[in-house]
Amino acid sequence: MTESGSFICWDWTRLTVGMVVCGALLACSSTVEPDNVGACKQISEFGSNGCLDIKGRVVGPSDQPLHGIDVVPRYPAGMLIFANSRATTDATGAFTLRVWRMSSQSPTVGSDTLSLWVRGVDTRAVVQGTPPRVLDSALVHATISPIGTIPTPTTVTLTILAP
Question: What is the DSSP string of 96-141?
């Protein structure tokens, strides 16, 4: 074999080995095992130490599902720092929110819980310059699950008067 032929073969071998190593590193980089789908994950270098899930529905006065309603959590003043997802209801009026506690420590005494408001906001017919109306909110009490565990969702139903 010529010298240039050996060089090409060596390059392909290095490339293949490099791709296999990168794939293995990416597969192992998750903090949660693949069979633990839905578990609380570490979401920031500053350290989330738990999360909670809120599931529910937004319905009208006749229990009809409302599609396209934004659902957001709101926290009492003076609470620790939290990060959260936003949700928009689907065709069945259903939504799911996840809230992460961003703190270096978990409480050392008592259960790890949080009281917060869940608000349904109709932004479907917002005119520029006019703020959306908060149509309903509910106070919920949820348990924060540690990183690596699957939280038991807190369930809430919001009933709003919306077109």
Answer: EEEEEEE-S---SSS--EEEEEEEEEE-TTPPTTSPPEEEEEEEEE
pLDDT in tens, 83-121: 778 899 999 999 999 888 777 666 555 568 888 899 998
Written as one letter, the residue type at 80 is L
Residues in contact with 2: Cβ distance below 8 Å, sequence separation at least 6, in sequence order: none
pTM exceeding 0.90: no
8 — pLDDT class (breaks 50, 70, 90): very low
HSE toward the beta carbon, residue 63, CA cutoff 13 A: 0
DSSP state of 35: G
| Contact (Cβ atoms closer than 8 angstroms) between residue 88 and residue 133 | no
113, amino acid identity: T
Place of tokens 């109709």: 122
CA-closest candidate to residue 38, choices 51, 26, 56, 29: 51
CA distance 147 to 61: 38
Q: Which residues contact 17 (CB under 8 A, 6 or more apart)?
A: none
